[in-house]
Amino acid sequence: MPKRSRPPAHATDPAAARRDVVFAALADPLRRRLLEQLADGKPRTASACARHLAKRLQATIKHLVQLRDAALVEMSPDPADSRRQLYTLSPQVQVRRSDAGDIEMDFGCCVLRLEGPVEVAAL
Fold first, then answer.
1. What's the distance, Cα to Cα, between the start and end of the chain in Å?
2. What is the average pLDDT across 68-97?
3. Quick one: 2 exposed, middle or buried, by C-beta within 10 A (0-12, 13-18, 19+)?
């Protein structure tokens, strides 16, 4: 009789599934840079994010959608131009700043610490 294998942890544990999604989103350096850029709380368009990262718009949108699917970023219509979307960090991502300019982003299952001032482009 074949040996039964155990189901993956995330199949029975929603917290494990959430961790897997967050870790997968954080695995890409470009997505981490997008999160750093949005850490100041100011809404940005995908075009503004792409310019700051010096990446193509389509590539930036792809990464923003993956962050949105991981519930780390939210989209809302731009009140100034309904054709565009604004991206912000999800309220469930807690951002703390130290006096030295360090940023700490708490994703619930892990914390990302960015030491020193983080350069963020203006809109």
1. 64
2. 94
3. exposed
CA distances from 18 to 5, 26, 94, 105 (A): 22, 12, 16, 16
pLDDT at 121: 45
> Is-contact 72 35, C-beta < 8 A?
yes
How is residue 81 written in tokens? 């131009």
User: Looking at this protein, which amino acid is placed at residue 95?
Assistant: V
pTM value > 0.85: no
Please state which of the ranges 10-14, 78-82, 88-92, 94-98 shows the lowest mean pLDDT: 10-14
User: Rounded to an integer, what is the distance from CA 75 to the centroid of its chain?
Assistant: 12
Structure tokens that stand for 91 in this block: 């309220």
Distance CA 65, CA 68 (A): 5
Nearest to 123, CA basis, from 54, 35, 45, 59 = 45
d(CA 22, CA 25): 5
Contacts 24+ apart (CB under 8 A), 99-104: 103/36, 103/39
